[in-house]
Amino acid sequence: MKQIFHLTLPLLITFLLSLFFAFQFFVPHESIRDTYTYLLQCTMIIGCFAMLLGIYSLVRVHFIRIKRRAQNYKYSYMTITALTLTIIVGLFGSIEKGPALEGHMYYFIYNTVLIPIQATMFSLLAFFIASAAYRAFRARSLVATVLLLTAVFVMIGRVPIGGQIHEFLPAFAHWLLNVPNLAAKRAIMIGIGLGASATALKVALGIERSHFGG
Amino acid sequence: MKLSRIIGLLMFFTVIVIYGISPVYPQVNEDITAEDIVEAEPLHQTDIEQKLIKPCTIIKVQDKPDDGGKAIEIFWEDPESERQSLKGYEIMRGKSPEGPFESVTVLAPKTFNYTDIVDENHVEYFYKIRKTFKQGYIDSRISDKAIALPQWFDKRYISVLIFTIIYIFACVFFIITSIKGKEYYVRPIAGISAVDEAIGRATEMGKPILFLNGLGTATEPSTLASFAILGRVAKKTAEYKIRLINPQYEPIVMSVAQDVVKNAYTEAGHPDAYDEKDVFFITHDQFSFTAAVNGIMLRDKPATNFYMGMFYAESLLLAETGAYAGSIQIAGTDQILQIPFFVTACDYTLIGEELYAASAYLSREPKLLGTLKGQDLGKLIAAILLIIGTINITIAHWFDIPWLDFLKNFLDTGN
């Protein structure tokens, strides 16, 4: 009985739903479209409830850290406090639709705390790109030199001064991006498409079962 | 030279040759407002009688093919489309030839087709085109009836269906032959071969391993592929008694990952070594997640970092921090834009399809290896189609033989 509920039934549901999702791609009929939309909405609802699982996991991990006085446990106080405050403000603040929302405390926290933090993290990318580019573009071999030269042509060709140096540069940069670069990208994309389809097939047929826990 | 390399080179050079032709879509005339149309008056009857101004001619109204219904296509022609004073075409719709007709939209001059979204299927609709000038307007004759109907098969995807069927049969065929004992060669993939080496390094250093499943949901194929790799890594960490840290961005992925790791520890014979709090949720916010994982990397200094699954802008932030922390890094993603970042910052990178091949490569299960051969056949078919298509289109355009475009037309429209 345990085998039926833990393996056979999930495999059967996976197979039937995989068939439906493959079938719906070829069928534009509204009855199929409506069922497809309904199933996608179900996924979203499940996702919302799953967030409770996530919050439970987060709170549990940090409470254990505080309880055990683990290394850097003080950060856990910050996490729990921030989480609790945001939930309280979100749930019990007077949320109204329309412009009133803009002045709400929840959005104040969002706009003045979270967005600057996100922007800071994203800004770091500029410096990381510089350091990664330095490593990638060192001319240690013939191939690396070709990469370096290509990068130089693309960079100069994509800025206004490139056209001022020679009119050939922007056209060459455009060609590099849109012909050899795009060809390589499309070749990878074909491989990815086939690999993803094979994975989907393995899951549908129950050959790949790692998502059931091994 | 290996067959796969030849296929790769053929695909590369063939795609270089191909150039797409951009389709032209009808544009709504934004210069004309509804008020302009309401203010316009019918043109003088004398002008029309003297044939100074000619109305549009509706060529065809029909149900939009290959759709879910509630859409009707209208095609018309206008002998005076170049006239300077022409402001646009107003599409008028009614449920009876006698009217009343209501305005649907206003289109720019030189537009000769429109797809109207109607309220109901199986209902008769009639159309007329109101041609609007600065001086007034003139209506076309009323069209024949058109009925919107939903279809059960989208003919445009017939080529996809054929390819899908061939592909599925090929995969199933290779799976069966593999189960029957036929051995297939799988080329060595450096990134996957390095998994054991990376785990060994962590064991020697006595440091943890960090595994990230990416930012995808549990429905993404790349996330599913990452579970297979996570299972193998977890089994090894259980055997060598190393800590596995698996922070999560998505609660459902976390739940699945907990099961995967727990089962791997049980299979390895160390169920008690599994600690649920090592597979934990952080946040569902991209950069907050990145900040938290970067913090873990810098505080815990893992010996090895695995990045498997879907990654976006955070890929370089994570991989550079990992490199700074001195970890061996193995990445695998199907996100094309992130592959160069991983190649630059990681020691090994699984590029695109290699991520999907990893579970077969690591387990060596015949059933999984069979699908790899199916993928190879799929690539071969794609390469052959690309070459034939390129030759077809090139000859068709050089010698102006439109019927030679048949392959492109078949792949595009199913006709």
Oligomer: heterodimer
Question: Outline of chain A, from the CA principal axes?
Answer: extended
Q: Could you state the order of secondary-structure elements of chain B as H and E?
A: HHHEEEEEEEEHHEHEHEHEHEHEHHH
Strand order of the largest sheet of chain B: 11-10-9-12-13-14
Strand content of chain B: 15-25%
Indicate the mean pLDDT of chain B: 84
The residue ranges of chain A in which pLDDT falls below 50 over 5 or more consecutive positions are none
Summing up helix and strand content along with how strands pair, one would put the structural category of chain B as alpha/beta
Biggest beta sheet summary of chain B: 6 strands, parallel
Largest two-chain interface: A-B, 69 and 90 residues
Pick out the low-confidence regions of chain B. Answer: 18-39
- Secondary structure class of chain A reads mainly alpha
What does this protein structure show overall?
The complex is a heterodimer of chains A (214) and B (415). Chain A has helices at residues 2-26, 30-67, 74-92, 105-136, 142-157, 160-165, 168-204. By secondary structure, chain A is an all-alpha fold. The two termini of chain A are 19 Å apart. Chain B is elongated and about 90 Å long. In chain B, α6 (221-240) packs parallel to α7 (251-267) and α11 packs antiparallel against α12 (366-398). In chain B, β13 (328-333), α10 and β14 form a beta-alpha-beta unit. Chain B has 13 helices and 14 strands. Chains A and B meet through α1, α2, α4 and α7 of A and α1, α4, α6, α7 and α8 of B.
